[in-house]
């Protein structure tokens, strides 16, 4: 069963291709790392999948259903949730209420949260390790706690596919280790993940496969250890020239 299928997906801004003809599939149970240097098109791909932007051409299928051009709330309701490159909590709301706000988008609007909703929100805060901050204003959380809240709020919509944008950017090795544990815990809940990971510090350890982009084009896909040795990928990251190629 395929969870997500991208077919010949392209996006132009003022005639310039930010993404060009991307074909890719995420299978049931998979964690995929989306890698590539700055400007490669990673966030644009998230914006297309989550409905924030319309593709210029091509199709997006989610669990076999064509979702191309659907609005973000409709995409979310079908089971795709995301986090953003920078944390965006509702700052004047408690941590717990931020998570409850996520539930509303997942299941349809309801003004009154039920006791079981609140229990689920507490559980999710526990999953991400900030249960003790439930009553704290989101604005008073540390940056790493806000990232955990982003994750809990996204999970509250009960996604089948979760898109994480640069979750581990700027994380120390200790925080990366915690993030890996957390992601595996999310996977155990039956959630598939697509993780943007510019610095490759997370996805090489948790991803089943990588999708590598450069200048809007797919340059490689496959298991992390193979993709990370790929010439095009090394060239994209390190600007390698391979002047000795002709001698090979
Ligand atoms: N809303 C936009 N309008 C114009 N150009 C954009 C917009 N969003 C992204 N781009 C351009 O698309 C390219 C890919 O950007 P982006 O998807 O943010 O890359 P990444 O997340 O891999 O760093 C860049 O050249 C960027 O300037
Ligand atoms: Mg980006």
How would you describe the overall organization of this protein?
- 35% of the residues lie in helices and 25% in strands.
- The longest helix has 16 residues, at 173-188.
- It contains nine helices and ten strands.
- The protein folds into two domains: 1-79 and 162-248, P-loop containing nucleotide triphosphate hydrolases (Rossmann fold), CATH 3.40.50.300; 89-158, no CATH class.
- Helix 3 packs across helix 4, helix 3 packs parallel to helix 5 and helix 4 (115-127) crosses helix 5.
- The protein starts with a strand and ends in a 10-residue tail after the last helix.
- It is α/β, with parallel strands linked by helices.
- The protein is globular, with a radius of gyration of 19 Å.
- It has a six-stranded mixed beta sheet with strand order 6-7-8-3-9-10, with helices on both faces. The protein has a four-stranded antiparallel beta sheet with strand order 2-1-4-5, with helices on one face.
- Magnesium ion binds next to helix 1.
Q: What fraction strand? A: 25-35%
* CATH hierarchy: architecture of the largest domain: 3-Layer(aba) Sandwich
Uncertain parts:
none
Coarse morphology: globular
CATH class of the largest domain reads: Alpha Beta
Return the average pLDDT rounded to an integer. Answer: 90
Number of domains: 2
Question: What is the radius of gyration?
Answer: 19 Å
